[in-house]
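ok so heres the complex, two chains, lmk if somethin looks off
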Amino acid sequence: MPTRMWKWSLSVAAAAVLALPVPSWGQLTQYDLESRMGAESHVGNVTGHAKDAKTAYRRYCVGCHGPLGDGNGENFPWVDPKPRDFQLGVFKCRSTPTGTLPTDQDLFDTIGRGLDRSNMPQWDPLSNQDRADLVAWVKHFSPRWTNEKPGAPIEIPAEPEVTAERIKAGRDVFARVQCWKCHGVLGQANGPSAATLTDDLGRPIAAYNFTEGSRPKCGDTDRDIYRIFMTGLDGTPMPSFADNIKPDEAWDLVFYLRTLMSQPSKAKAMAKQLGLKPVDPNAPAGQQ
Amino acid sequence: MLVSSRFHLRNIFQSATSFAAVALVLASVVLTCSQPVHALPAFARKYGLRCSACHESWPMLNYFGQKFKDNGYQLMNDRDAPIWQNPSYWPITLRITPFWSRESTNKVAVDNAALDATVEQKITTTGFNLSGLDILTGGTLEKNITFLLVPSSDETGAFHFESASVRFDNLFRSPWLNVKVGKFELDSFISEKRTLTLSGSGGGYQLFHFIPVGSGNIFGQIGDNQLGVEWMGHSYNDRTRLSVAVINSVDGNVDLPYGQNSYSAFIAGSHAFGAGRLGVQRVGGYAMFGQAPTTYLTNGGVPLPGTGTGNKSFSRVGFEGLFYLGSKLDVQVFTQHGSDDKWFGACFGDIITGTCDPANNNNPNGPGLPAGARNPTWNGAFVETHYIWNPQFLIFQRSEWVRMSQQAIPGTPSNLGDIDNYVFGYRYNPFMTSRAGFAFHNEYSWIRQRGTSPVTNTDLSTNSVLLGFDFDF
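and the predicted structre for the whole thing:
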């Protein structure tokens, strides 16, 4: 009898052990995806439906982002930066505070704008409806969208007039919050921390090089640049500075960053006239 | 004089119809054997995008692919320059189609020993064959400097340069300033180089190569790649596109074999707009105006290539539209009104392919214009439909009609040379990756040209069944 009990116990234990991985296998199953097929997006007056994006996703996106949206498409080994894992529900380009979900408009804009210096092209030739449908499709990959609501977009005050004082003040902000540690004192992405940067998944990642002439990933208007450092790029080492930089200072920093960029701008021309020097990391705090 | 004139007219008519019959068969063969198209897995490998990202079904471009092409084969993601590629990357694609076909022509001239005459007979052939080979290389030499080079052979391996051009893109950072020089496809957004139909009899667009029966004007074929320079501009999202090309009137032949100072222009413009759930619709138009030589200096009575003078004009204008009716169905519409100068209509012009009698017609001492000669004109249209079951399976049809509205030579039957062409089929890609393209292709086509059978000058028709494996790598 004890032997029989022992055998039963062993069988149950074995079955339990075998069953343990099941929840992890099932991190995302076809069933989960089907159950979220009702996901919608709302962009302007266009409503996107996940169920209508199946073909478009297969046509345009699946090669990189994979059938399950985990970024493990056939091109995963060959592209750098790696494709986004939609299952995590973490996105770089947002108008919402760090740690929150982006708005549908944010995702819609990212699809249309593409991500410079990556394999994500600008899908703006697609119709608004197709893009809205794809936004809904992207949302259906992550349970975050069923459990959370997107954050409220940050408020961006009206852009002030660029002045020499503001550019100098922006330079001070650049020194104070230590942008130079990653981006370098000249914005060449060669700061002392640049070589050690990794994303949240532990993959090496490069800081943005202001001088090479490429567009910032999340948009190249002044408002876009303001938004980038006030919301941070979630999933990357680029944090949100919303708690460290006041809105007025943020505009100063935008103007200073413009002076580092190779693209012509009013701020850049003014900095040249001023003979503005780069920050000095070795100088005492407040005098950099 | 009257007898002489009638004799001359009859000669022209007979030679014209004979030529037309031969031309139809030749065109069929040429289209079957060599249909250079541009679908480049080399780009897919470079950017890690599947064929379906750029192609509705390769080689036909979708809107994203059109934008990629209009940007000079660049994604504009600051990783277009070759310096960002693995040094072993070589932007080359090979395309060929092994196929089996059944071709049947209702009236072919054959000798009849019993009658000691040439008679017409229906001929049907079946068998395995090859298409021509396209070697497609293209991409960036540096950011915003791009190239396309396409050595192309017929099925026997005889090569020519189908395309060879360099393009300066986004000059002054503007998508409205792109300049291309070399031999290139004219900028119709409905592209014969990317047609989904492959068969010889009806695979190509008839309107892209239409020449009235008896005309010596080969210079107005908008489907042939041309030598020249092109300005092209487009909006950032490619919704609006404009282009103007100035080309030599040589139909893409190198070494200026015709005249020395004969040029043509091709102008195209289109605009796309969203229509809600229906999708993005594109409408546009094109116009080709040109001049080409009609007489040549001679040596021993034979016209000398490169000495053409007596430029006469021709034109092709039309509408083109691409309409999506939801995500699965699209309709292409293409129309044309064409006009050639009466000298072309009377068979002056081309001295190389010898459609008429270059020794007589194309020299200053030739017979001159027949009495009452007029500018030949015609109208035509085609409607092509694609039903995209999914990105891997597509069903297509095209119906095309060309109608002469005025013959060059009075007394010519009004419908001589009219064309009716129908083709339908399907294309199945068993797999879809960003490395190579492979499609099982099956189509049926039927084409009829009025009054062009070689002996009786009655209707000439050909039908074809094609089953092929179309692949590129």
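quick notes: Chain A touches chain B at residues 52, 55-56, 58-60, 62-64, 74-75, 78-79, 114-130, 212-215 (CB under 8 Å). thats all i got rn
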